[in-house]
Amino acid sequence: MNTYLILQNPGHNRVYYNLSGDMALAELGLASESLGSDCKGIVIKNIKGIRYVSFETKEDLTAGDIQIISNLSFVFAIFKEEDCNGVLSLLPIERSVTEYIDQKISSLLKYAGKTNELFTKMMINVALLASDFDYNSQIRLLDPIAGKGTTLFEAAVYNFEAMGIEIDPKSTHACEIFFKKFLEEEKYKHQADSRRVYGKNKTEAVFIKEFEYAKSKQEFKEKSNRKKLGLVTGQSQDADKYFKKNSFHLIVGDLPYGIAHGNTSDKNSKSITRNPYQLLSQCLPAWSHVLKEGGTVVIAWNSFVIPKHKLSSLFQENGFDIVNEGPELQFEHMVDKSIKRDIVIAKKKLS
Ligand SMILES: C[S@@+](CC[C@H](N)C(=O)[O-])C[C@H]1O[C@@H](n2cnc3c(N)ncnc32)[C@H](O)[C@@H]1O
């Protein structure tokens, strides 16, 4: 039996690190189902005062397994436990991370209401791991409540095509300015285009700002090599008006908590509601329309405001199966006194 030990990424948020042990177990638990090697005994282990996530396999991890594990949000370093004449030693395993764009992109912008970038990476990972797709599929991801773009940037790191919808024009503007500056400073060849995606007249018009980019001029020349990141300034419940049917593999987002942000879900009113349930119930038909079969939605929300079973039922009524019902796949954790964050992983049923 092989024992592997993972040192968790301390990130720059101590509170998140302290809370993230159980989430790491859940993320690895989901990933273990995609590994070639049979993976068991996933636990937290303390060795000489240092916390590790430990697991056992019968066979050595394959290159594909190491790629899946390396991409998990909490992974900082991977070791294999070795017994050298009765002395425990840790053999480092070379990580194999997917990183088209430098991972630093999602930690540069700081603002109130930003979703923790490691948590965001975790949501993308579990969405992919629970779906019928993998890192080698040409993934198209939608964040339908995109804020200033943390999910879009994390998706771009993975070389996914990333699209967002955000109702607040100040947020979309800040995201666009930041991404343009990032591409310029990091010397990506790029172009940006703004076009109408909906509306017959000026008052109805909804626009997308779409970036096409590539690492070099040479790569950019070939249209099929270009990566895309786009953001619609519009309403999430109209996602099906902005994007084609079955055009996304994954939908990942962090619902408004009703604390730092408003949830302007009522089409006829600009009033702020504190309940994400109403927003989600209005959005799910449109999200389901643009999501491929076998695709997944992963949504974070404040479970103080609404219990998980209510959100789960809403997904089920809209043709989804809930993936994270069992006790081993729990992601709920305290963020602060008023926010207890949890996620729903929902997979679109085959028709
Ligand atoms: C928790 S924030 C997302 C933060 C984002 N993950 C980030 O790190 O920047 C939720 C976002 O949902 C947006 N929102 C609320 N109602 C919306 C709607 N009906 N359509 C689109 N976006 C909406 C809010 O403006 C807010 O930016």
Can you describe this structure in just a few lines?
With 351 residues, this protein is an alpha+beta fold. It is 29% helix and 32% strand. The chain is built from eleven helices and 15 strands.
Write up what this structure looks like.
It is a single chain. The protein has 351 residues and is of the alpha+beta class. The protein is 29% helix and 32% strand. The strands form two sheets. Strands 6, 7, 8, 9, 10, 11, 12, 13, 14 and 15 form a ten-stranded mixed beta sheet that branches. It has a five-stranded antiparallel beta sheet with strand order 2-3-1-4-5, with helices on one face. A hairpin with a 7-residue loop joins strand 8 and strand 9 (206-214). Helix 5 crosses helix 6 and helix 10 (276-290) packs parallel to helix 11. The protein is globular. Bound molecules: S-adenosylmethionine (SAM). S-adenosylmethionine binds next to helix 6 and strand 7.
